[in-house]
Amino acid sequence: MDMTCIFLLVFLLLFLCSGSKAQMPGFLSLDCGGTENHTDSLGLLWTPDDQNTFGGTSFISTPNEARKQYTTVRYFPADDNKYCFTLQVENRTRYLVRATFLYGNFGTSDAYPKFDLSLEASYWSTIVISDENTIEIEELIFLATLPTVSVCLSNATTGQPFISTLELRQFNGSLYFTIFETQYFLSLSARINFGAESNDSVRYPDDPFDRIWEPDSVRRANYLVDVAPGTEKVSTTKPVDVSYGERPPEKVMQTAVVGRNGSLGYRLDLEGFPGFGWAFSYFAEIEDFRADETRKFKLFIPGMPAISKPTVDVEENAQGKFRLYEPGYDNLSLPFIFSFEFKKTNDSSLGPILNAVEIYKYMQINYGSKDASIMASLVSQYMQANWAHEGGDPCLPASWSWVECNSDPQPKVVSINLSGKNLTGNIPLELTKLTGLIDLQLDGNFLTGSIPDFGECIDLESIHLENNQLTGALPSTFADLPNLKELDVRNNKLSGVIPQGLIGKHISFNYEGNPNLTSRKNGLNHTIVIIISVVLGVLVALAALITYFSFAHKRNNSHQKGNVATIQQTKKLSTYFSEVATESAHRYDLSEIEDATANFQKKIGSGGFGVVYYGKLKDGKEIAVKVLTNESYQGIREFLNEVTLLSRIHHRNLVTFLGYSQQDGKNILVYEFMHNGTLKEHLRGPASLERTVNWINRLQIAEDAARGIEYLHAGCSPTIIHRDLKSSNILLDKNMNAKVADFGLSKPAVDGSHVSSIVRGTVGYLDPEYYTSQQLTEKSDIYSFGIILLELISGQEPISNERFGANFRNIIAWATSYIEGGNIQAIADPFLEDNFELQSMWKIAEIAILCVKPHGNQRPSISSVLKEIQEAIAIEQGSGATNGCMLTGNSPGSSLNLDSVALTGSERHRDASFLRVISQPGLR
User: Fold this and answer.
1) Full strand arrangement of the beta sheet holding 471-472
2) Which pTM does this prediction carry?
C-alpha cells in the first residue's frame, strides 16, 4: 500500500473518530428557533428545528450566556391548542429526553409564561418562568414503544409557550430498567455530584450518556440545604471502575464528601413529591486509609425506620476500592422535604462517604384516547399537509386544532372538521371506525369515489360532504343512524335513488347539485329542510319566551313601585349598580329582622362597615345580621356591591348570603350564622386558648378558603377579586368548615386582567404592588392569602412592633428569615406543640413565601396554591402509614420485596437488603 493510501486511511479514521465525538449514536440535539447546524464546546452537534411548521422564532440574549443554542427560542400562540415536536426513536429502547427553557429578553408581556409540558398524552411538568436569566431544565426517562415520540407544549396559563432546546439521549443495556416502565416514566428530581471541585456540571463527554450532574457546591434555592457539620470534600485522580449499574461518570465518582464528625446529612426539596420514586446512592471508596481503619455506616431517614437498617461497607460491597457500589430503592415513598443522613456504626473508625445521588419520580403514563391509533393511521395518509403534523395524541393533553373529543377519562373523538383542506382520493375508511363521532365536516375538498358505510358511528348527528366530487349512491345506512339531524351532500356527482328512510327522517337534508340523484316519489331535485315538527317546536319555544319576558316585565314594574324610596336615597349609585341586580336577592322586611334579633339585642361582631348581630328566623334558621353604620357614599356603595355580588355567586366555601333589608334608613345584610366565628379568633383570640385548631385543622381551613377563592378567580366570569382577604374574613361553621366572607370591597376584573382602583384593603394584608400601582389583579388576593398561610403556621398577627423582635415589624420579613435559614420550627405556633409533620409545614411555608413575592407575576395562581395545600394534607394524613408492614405489588405505590428477585451481580450490583421497599400503598 503506497503512502497516499495510508495517509487517506489515517485521515478517514481520524475523521470518523472526531465525528463519533461530535454526535453519539442515538443522540438528537434540537436548537429550537435556530437556523443552522453547529457543534458546541462539548462536541455535541445541534440541528435547527426548522422542520417544525408551527409557531414563530425569536432571537434572545441574556447576560453571561454565549452558547449558540440559547440565542433563539421557538414560541407558540397562547391558545387552547397543543404544539408538538415529533422525534424518531428506536422501539423498545430507553431514552432520556431533556427540554430547556431560557426566557431571556423574549416577549413583551408583564407576566412570565406558565404552561404545561407533556410526553405524548402524559403530563410531564408545568413550566413556570420566574427569572428571565435562569435556564429551566426538565428531564424524563422513558421506554420507547413506538417508532416516534412527541413532546408537546400546551395549556398556556400566562404568556406564550416557548422552548429553547430539546434533546434525546439513548441509553443501552439495562440502565434505568424498572419493572414499572410500561406504566410509569421516571421524571428527574435530583442528580447531585457530591464533593465537586468546581461549580461546573459534569456531562458529555465525561458522561457518555450526557446526563447533567449538578455540583453540590451550587446552592440552588429549594434544592440542597442543611449540610451536616464536619462535611469535607475528598477527591482522587486514580481511575474508578464504573462499568456496571447505571454507570455514573468516572469524573463524578472521583470526588466525594466524607463526614469527619461521623455523619453526613442533607435536606433536599424534591419537586413533584410527595409520591413514589426511584432513589439510588453512588459510592466508591476513593480514600487511602490504614488496614486497621474501617468505614461502615447506615442510612437514616426520619419517619422511615424500617429502611434505615442496612450497613454499608463500600469497599466490601463493591469488592474493592475504586469500584462503584450503588444501593438504592426502585419503589420508595418520598416526601417533598426529604432529609436523609448517613451515620457511622459503632465499630467504624471513619465517617461515611457519598459520591453521588439520583432521585426520580414515577409519572403515570397516559396511553391516550381510544381513537389514537385510528387517527394516527388517518394522518399518515396526508403527510404533506401541515394539519397532519400536529403530533401527539389527538385528544390529550389538548385536542388537535381540527378535532374535538369528549371528556371521558379515555377520550373519544366526537368531531372532525376538515373543511377546505384540499383532501383528494376516497373518504378515508378510518373515519367510519370512530364510533363516538357526532359531527363530520369534509365539505369543500376534492374527494372522489363512493361514500363509505358509517353504520358503526351511531352517534352521528351532522354530516357535511357538500362541494366534493363524490360518486355512487347514498348509503342506505344513513337512514338507520338514530341521532342524525343534518345531512348535506350538495354539489357532488351522486346518482341513484335516495333511500326511502331518509325521505321520512326528521332531518335537514340537502342534496341539490346532484343531477342524477332522485327521489323515488317524483324524481325532482329538491331540498328537504327542517321538518315541520322542528318548526313547530321552535314556535312553541318562542311563545314560551315571549310569555316569560312579559311576566318578568310586569313583576319588575310591580316591585319597582315598592323600591322608589330606596332608589331615591341612593340615586348617586345608580351608575354603579342596576336595580335588576339588587332585586335578584331576597328582601326582608325590617320587622322580620327586628323579631329575629330581638330588636338587635345580641352583638356578635363589629368592623368598619358596621355591627353584626345574632338572629333566629321563625323557621329556626340562625342568621348573622350586619347593620350598616357608615351612611357615607362609600358605605352605601359597599353595601350595594355586596348585595349585587352575593346575589349571583354561590359556593360551599363562601358564606351564604340570605338577603338584605333597606327600610327606615337602615341598610342590613343577612347571612348564614357561622357558629365558630373567625379564623383570627382561633389563632389569637379567646378561642385560641382552647387549642382546638391543630395543624391538620389549619390545613383543612386553608384548603376550604383556597377553594372559595379559586371559585372567585376561576369559576366566575368575569373574575372576582376579593380585595380584603384576612383571617377575620374567614369564618368557621359548627363543623369547622371554612368560608370566605365580606365582599364589600370586591371587584370584578372586567377586562380579564386588572382593575384600576383606589387602593382599599387592610394594613398587613395589602399587596404592595397594588398599593403603588393602583392596578388590582387576582394576584393581590394571592398576596393576602400568603399572609394568612403564615398566620396559620405561626399564629402571629401580620404586623407587630413587639412580637417579631427588634429587627422585624411584619410577619413576612420575620418568617422569611427563618424559612430561608432552614429553621421552620422557629416560626411554628407553640400551641401546635410539635404535633405536625415537618414536611407538610415546609410545603406550606414555601408556597406562602411565593405568595408574598413583591411582584404579582412571581406569585402562583390560587389553583397552584390549593394543590400544594392538598399535598401537605396528604403528607399529614399519611404520616403514620409509611412505617407499616411489607406489602407486595407490581406498580409504584405497592411495596415490593425484591429479596426473591434474581439479581445478576455485575449487571445490577446492588445489595438486596437495600432493594427491599417499604412504602405506602397508593400512588399520590
Assistant:
1) 471-472, 493-497, 516-518
2) 0.60
CA angle 681, 682, 684 (to 5 degrees): 65
Cβ–Cβ < 8 Å for 916, 897 = yes
Please write the tens of the pLDDT for every residue from 338-347.
Answer: 889 999 999 9
Cα separation of 328 and 308, whole Å?
12
End-to-end CA gap in the chain: 68
Supply the pLDDT for residue 124.
95
Cell 378561642 belongs to 687
- The confidence score (pLDDT) of residue 79 equals 86
724 carries an active-site annotation: yes
Return the closest-CA partner of residue 629 out of 791, 744, 786, 749.
744
User: What residues form DSSP beta bridges with 325?
Assistant: 283
Give residue-wise pLDDT tens across range 657-692. Answer: 888 888 887 888 899 999 998 999 899 866 555 656
Alpha helices in 45-158 (DSSP H): none
Sheet containing strand 231-235, edge to edge, reads: 231-235, 255-259, 353-354
Q: Which three cell numbers stand for residue 260?
A: 469527619
Res 730: pLDDT: 94
What is the CB-side half-sphere exposure of residue 583 using CA atoms within 13 A? 17
In the numeric block, the cell 464536619 is attached to 230
How far apart are the C-alpha atoms of 535 and 541, rounded to whole Å? 10
C-alpha cell at 621: 334558621
- In this prediction, residue 664 carries a pLDDT of 81
Question: What is the helix (H) or strand (E) element at residue 784, kind and residue range?
Answer: helix 778-794
The answer to whether 669 touches 607, Cβ cutoff 8 Å, is no
The pLDDT tens digits of the residues spanning 172-209 come to 888 999 989 999 999 999 999 999 999 899 999 999 99
Q: 244-284: per-residue pLDDT in tens?
A: 889 999 999 999 999 999 999 888 888 888 899 999 999 99
What burial class does residue 799 get, using C-beta atoms within 10 Å of its C-beta: 0-12 exposed, 13-18 middle, 19+ buried? middle
- What does R_g of the chain's alpha carbons equal in angstroms? 34
- Report residue 839 as a C-alpha cell: 414536611
Distant-in-sequence, close-in-space partners of 117: CB < 8 Å, separation ≥ 6: 99, 124, 125, 126, 127, 138, 151, 152, 153
Which one from 724, 742, 767, 829 is the annotated catalytic residue?
Answer: 724
Q: At what angle do helices 811-820 and 778-794 cross, to 10 degrees?
A: 70
How many other β-carbons are positioned within 10 Å of the β-carbon of residue 373? 13
Percentage, residues of the chain above pLDDT 70: 79
* DSSP-assigned letter for residue 714: I
For 242-303, what is the HEC assignment? Answer: CCCCCCCCHHHHCEEEEECCCEEEEEEECCCCCEEEEEEEEECCCCCCCCCCCECEEEECCC
Q: Is 885 helix (H, G, I), strand (E, B) or coil?
A: coil
Question: Where does 398-502 show beta strands of DSSP type E?
Answer: 403-405, 413-417, 424-425, 439-441, 446-447, 462-464, 471-472, 486-488, 493-497
pLDDT band at 47 (very low <50, low <70, confident <90, very high): very high
Q: For residue 715, what pLDDT is reported?
A: 79
Residues pairing with 268 in the sheet: 224, 338
pLDDT at 169 over 50: yes
